[in-house]
Every structure is written in C-alpha cells, then in structure tokens.
Design goal:
Shape: elongated
Mean pLDDT: 92
Distance between the termini: 70 Å
Strand content: 15-25%
Family: Belongs to the class I-like SAM-binding methyltransferase superfamily. rRNA adenine N(6)-methyltransferase family. RsmA subfamily.
Radius of gyration: 22 Å
Number of helices: 13
Largest sheet: 7 strands, mixed
Catalytic activity: adenosine(1518)/adenosine(1519) in 16S rRNA + 4 S-adenosyl-L-methionine = N(6)-dimethyladenosine(1518)/N(6)-dimethyladenosine(1519) in 16S rRNA + 4 S-adenosyl-L-homocysteine + 4 H(+)
Keywords: Cytoplasm, Methyltransferase, RNA-binding, rRNA processing, S-adenosyl-L-methionine, Transferase
InterPro entries: KsgA/Erm, rRNA_Ade_diMease-like_C, rRNA_Ade_Mease_Trfase_CS, rRNA_Ade_methylase_Trfase_N, rRNA_adenine_dimethylase, SAM-dependent_MTases_sf
Main location: cytoplasm
Structural class: alpha/beta
Strand order of the largest sheet: 4-3-2-5-6-9-7
Length: 296
C-alpha cells in the first residue's frame, strides 16, 4: 500500500478552494454540508473500524474529505455521488492528492436509492456522511441491496441518530429503529460538532454504528411482510395495535387474532415491540385471515 502524502486530506482552505474552482455552493436541497476538518474524518474512519482489506462504499462523498481518509485505511473505496459537478471532479481530486491510491478508487455517478450493484468486489463496509433529508431511506436501501456490508458507520442528524439507535419503549423508537434492527445491531457511536462543516448546519450531528447480524432474523415472514406490519403499527402510534393493525389485517378482530397468535397483547403499542415481535405478527397474518373467514 502506497502511503499518502501528509497533506493529502482536505482542510478548510482546500475545501473552499475546490468549491470555488468548481463553482459549487452547498445546497440545502441535497443536504450538502462539506466536512472541512481532517481530524474528524480520520476519527470517523477509526470509529468505523475500517481495515486494510475492506472494500468501502461511501454515499454522498461531496468534495472528497471523507473519501481521502477512507483511501488511507481501506483496500478499495467506491463513492456514489448524485451531483453532476461533484461526481465529475472527485476522481481528479483523488488522483491529485493520493496518486498512489487512485487505482483503488471508483466513482458511481448515480442516485444511491437506485444503485443495486457496484463495480469491483462487493463492499464489506459502508461509511458515509449521509445527506440528512434522505439518510434513513438511503441507509436501509444500501443494507438491503448489499448483504456483504458487515459494518456501517453513518453520520446523520443527531435526532435521526437517536431514532435509529433507540430501544423499544423509548419515546423516539419508531420505524427507522425497527427496520435498522432487522439488519443489524445498532448503537450511537459519538457526536460531531457543527464547526467541522462548511457551511455549519443548524443541527447537531451524530455517528451511528450498525453491525450486521451474524445470522438473519429467524422468521418465516419476508422482509416486506414484516416491514408492512411495522409501517402500519407506527402510522397511528397512539392507537393500540388492535386498532392500528386493523387496516393491515382487514379488521380489528382479525388484527387481534394475529396478535394473540403471535403472543403479543392487542392492547400494546408499536413502540413497545421488538423487531422479533413484529416478525411474529407478520408470521401470523394467516390467523387474521382465518378469524375473518370464521366470522363470515
């Protein structure tokens, strides 16, 4: 592995200079806040536990601050960038600042929500400063599309980090918490100050670590079936599950039948259930149908 030059990473002046040369102004529409602090990106790479044999996928690399730090540590880095100007410029930035590592870098110019395959070896890790307005759907899509991703570390809005890592019974436990837990063990992995970004966002940021389950959740229900129950349960989170799942099951009585068969109280609410319990409810959808048929 060729060692990068000491000044290979981007500092505040480098970021502004690059942006000015490209005529780039960060846009709120795409949730762009560029990291301008080299110590922060190195900290993210350390926290992510990136290894020399890792193939890392990065979403939303922007001007390349985190990309360069990942290239210092990983075997390969593939970056997915939707912005035309940024996507066109990033390979040149990598080649200029880390010429010895440029052949280990690939750029995919696309919306991450539409990416289902990547060039080269399958990714083993996902590390990204995710655009805050699409963080959860992008994260879930990448985990679903690339089952080889073992470890993930994402930087997201602090409130989103709390929701992703929340445990059952927490006020912020909801759809993102359950769906992320379908794939992985999830925890908060630190906080990031506002002053390491340009422009500085008006929200705090947090790091979330996701380590994929060694074995998939044991259930006969499919991911789609389980997620349908989760979506229904939290669409009306103040209601009991008997009422909230009535539309999903066909009626409140059918929902109750499925819940009882799953060993879940019909009076419980979605925020108290684990992902395993949601899976059991999905497995017992047939009991909801049987109950309906028995009443006809």
């Amino acid at each position: 592995m060729t060692s990068p030059t000491p000044d290979a990473l981007l500092g505040p002046a480098d970021v502004r200079e690059l942006a000015a040369a490209l005529g780039v102004r960060p846009t709120k529409q795409r949730g762009q806040n560029f990291v301008i602090d080299a110590n922060t990106v190195r900290r993210i790479v350390r926290t992510a536990g990136v290894r020399p044999d890792d193939v890392v996928v990065e979403v939303g690399p922007g001007l390349g601050s985190l990309t360069l730090a990942l290239l210092e540590a990983a075997d390969r880095v593939t970056a997915v960038e939707i912005d035309d100007v940024l996507a066109a410029a990033l390979p040149a930035t990598v080649a200029a600042r880390m010429p010895g590592r440029a052949e280990r870098f690939a750029l995919v110019h696309s919306d991450a929500m539409h990416v289902t395959e990547l060039p080269g070896p399958a990714p083993t890790a996902l590390v990204a400063n995710l655009p805050y307005n699409v963080a959860v759907p992008v994260l879930l899509h990448m985990l679903e599309s690339f089952p080889g991703i073992e470890r993930t570390l994402v930087m997201v809005q602090s409130e989103v980090a709390d929701r992703l890592a929340a445990a059952p019974g927490s006020k912020v436990y909801g759809v993102p918490s359950v769906k992320a837990n379908w794939y992985a063990e999830v925890k908060r992995a630190g906080a990031i100050g506002r002053n390491v970004f340009w422009p500085a966002p008006n929200v705090d940021s947090g790091l979330v670590s996701l380590v994929r389950r060694a074995e998939p959740l044991k259930t006969t229900a499919s991911r789609r079936e389980v997620f349908a129950v989760v979506d229904a349960a939290f669409a009306q989170r103040r209601k009991t599950l008997r009422a909230a799942l009535a539309g999903w099951a066909g009626s409140a009585a059918a929902a109750e039948a499925a819940l009882v068969a799953a060993g879940v109280s019909p009076q419980a609410r979605g925020e108290s259930l684990t992902v395993e319990e949601f899976a059991r409810i999905a497995e017992n959808a047939g009991n909801a149908g049987n109950k309906e048929q028995g009443q006809q």
